[in-house]
Amino acid sequence: MKKNFFTYFAFFICVSLQAQDYVDIVKLSSNNATLGNIDDNYETSVNNLNFELYYPSVINENLVVLTGITAENTALNLTPFSDRSNLTMTRLNLGVKYQHSEKWSGTYVFLPKIASDFNNIGSNDFQFGGIAILDYQAKENLKYKFGLYSSTENFGTTLTPIIGLWHRSKNEKLYINATLPIRMDINYALSSKFSVGSDLLTSIKSYNMSEANSLFYVQEESIRLAMYASYGLLDNALLLRAKVGLDTTDYGLYSSDDTVGVQVLTVQLGGDDRTRLNSEFASGLFFGGDIIYRFDLKKKE
């Protein structure tokens, strides 16, 4: 059974990730910041917790079914006079990875989610998105990415063009995995267990405020850029990361009938004449950490 498990993941990587020699199955992240706003001296603590779980299923030599779940919770005060809000998102990741040719492969994922304060689940809490990414294998250790992400949100529809690359140096010390503008991870191995690096995580999403009878929603535009130190345990299967960085996330509160239509990245194509109901958040330092369970194929073959 153990041998079949190793073979299963080895085959998955050969088909779907090509040059990559590991897969992150579980990731738990916690980030904490104190954010002020641009109008006065009011500050609020922002506690963010994120969990990701992925599971692939090999169908044949060209097709892999991808399944997973993402859950995120952010606790903060949206205004100086409001109670603490818990903004929660749970999302299914349902898709496929298909090998179109020797050089080209594609990842296509449907992303249904519930995003709200989870006080009274209703139709306004459900949103639907999708992502499509084409990978071009330029070299054994270099791959380019091109794609598009889209999602229906309480404020309208968001569209995010994607460009990126995957690269590992020949001495296997430098690693780059960029899917911009959504995420990026760059790290350098100082020893067999210890590495340093930088990561970038961004998101544009909305949360229905069901506690207020769905009269309001929160639009989150998040950018977190961090430096980290990573230490490997259990033969580097378990990674522990300590992080410090800059959090520029903004949480705008709007009436539920105040929308913008289509938004590309952070630009509203029809303009933005909405009336914001809270102050804009200022950026601040955040501190956090990651726990990652990584399946290293080279050591399991």
Gap between N and C termini:
14 Å
Task: Give, in order, the helices and strands.
Answer: HEEEEEEEEEEEEEEEEE
Second rung of CATH, namely the architecture: Beta Barrel
Portion in helices: under 10%
Number of E-state strands: 17
The stretches of 5 or more residues where confidence is low (pLDDT under 50) are 1-19
Into which percentage range does the β-strand content fall?
over 45%
Question: What is the residue-averaged pLDDT?
Answer: 89
What does it look like?
This protein has 301 residues and is mostly beta strands. The protein has one domain: Beta Barrel (Porin), CATH 2.40.160. 5% of the residues lie in helices and 65% in strands. It is built from 1 helix and 17 strands. The protein has one helix at 2-16, and strands spanning 22-36, 43-58, 63-77, 84-99, 104-116, 126-139, 142-153, 156-168, 174-180, 183-189, 194-208, 216-233, 238-247, 250-255, 261-264, 267-268, 284-296. The protein has a 14-stranded antiparallel beta barrel with strand order 1-2-3-4-5-6-7-8-9-10-11-12-13-17. A hairpin with a 5-residue loop joins strand 8 and strand 9.
